[in-house]
Amino acid sequence: MVVITVGFMVQDVVADALSVQVAETDEEMGQIQTLGRMALLVGSISVGYLSGWLAAHIGTRATFACAMLLPLLVVASVPFIRISARARAAPPGGGDGGPLGGGKARLVLGVGLAYAAFTVALEALAVPFGQELVLVVSAALIGLLLHRVGISRAVVIAAIVIFLFRATPGVGQGYSYWAIDKLGFDQTFLGLLAQVSSILSLAGLLVFRKTIVTRPVSFTLGWVIVAGTVLYLPSIGLFYGLNEWLGLSARTFAFIDTTIAAPLAQLTMVPMLILIAKTAPRGAEATMFAIMASLMNLALSASELFTRYLNDAFNVTQADYSSLGRLMITVGAVGLVPLLALPLLKRQEHHL
């Protein structure tokens, strides 16, 4: 599993770095990031359907064998990659060579291994406030890496915006507990909603692709977060019986709500990837994407931590979700906080 995880991380970083190196213009860079996100969604949706069908018809071993052949398609496509003129003209990212800038690559690898050992040690020793310690140490290490790569005002602002957007807390499992116990939803129906959400997220990228690429990142992030908050209101209404007032069953209301809100689900990821690509130092794109990927994972960890804090504060558990409505309202309001960072990003975009 460790090898698989590392392999996935490396291929993700290389693909993101290529999006910078093959693009001639910023618009092309945005198009490539959008198409890459769409490809990821298509892959996850198709794998979800095909894996079960293939396993039933040709067996699990043959299914794994087919999956192992897919990387060969990537290798076969390498001769068709053409590096853009501006990428060829860019200075190398490090003075001592290497795919990630030589010494910087060794620094990233060394810090990553030290961090992994630290995390495992905290887990094994069951240290109190271990998750909080990991969060603080991770932030310090990422700050060190950004400093060594060559931090600038643009990178700092990009890091702040990305962290705020990814660190916003969610409702947690309380909503699922309530939906199953009170509304009679089962895992099959919740799985159906998840599949519909994935498909409509892909449709949202198709519909808004031009807007994402041509408009400033701050504009896209701004309207998506406002629209997402507005479209979150029906979920709050469902808790307070809005579906009964409208004469709809809970399942019908939830399905309609998912259909309306799902197209926006992936729209914030593409602008954030474009932002990373624009702020990455020439010749060190892979290093910057690797560090920013760590930052996004750190933000997700912070989001989980904040979600736990909110659930504890409102005392929402599997046995008691009477305060779930107030928790959902709070989460919706906190989701607007990243808007405060957009004026900084808007001023900085003129220099990108």
Task: Give the structure's gist in a few sentences.
The chain is an all-alpha fold and 352 residues long. The chain is globular and about 60 Å long.
3D architecture notes:
This protein is mainly α and about 350 residues long. The chain has helices at about 1-20, 25-60, 60-75, 85-90, 105-125, 130-150, 155-165, 175-180, 185-215, 215-240, 240-245, 250-260, 270-280, 285-315, 325-335, 340-350. The relative contact order is 0.14. Residues about 95-100 have low confidence and may be disordered.
Oligomer: single chain
Mean pLDDT: 79
Name the helicity range: over 70%
For the record, the count of structural domains works out to 1
Low-confidence stretches: 94-102
Shape summary: globular
Strand content: under 5%
Compressed to H and E, one letter per element, the order equals HHHHHHHHHHHHHHHH
Major sheet attributes: none
Structural class: mainly alpha
Q: Termini, distance in Å?
A: 39 Å
Q: How many helical stretches?
A: 16
Radius of gyration: 22 Å
Secondary structure: number of strands? 0
Essential attributes:
about 350 residues; mainly alpha; 16 helices; single chain
Write the SSE topology.
Layout: H1 2-21, H2 26-58, H3 60-77, H4 85-89, H5 103-125, H6 130-150, H7 153-167, H8 174-181, H9 187-214, H10 217-239, H11 242-246, H12 250-261, H13 269-279, H14 285-313, H15 324-334, H16 342-349
Helix pairs in contact: 1-14, 2-3, 2-9, 2-13, 5-6, 6-14, 7-13, 7-14, 7-16, 9-12, 10-12, 10-13, 10-15, 10-16
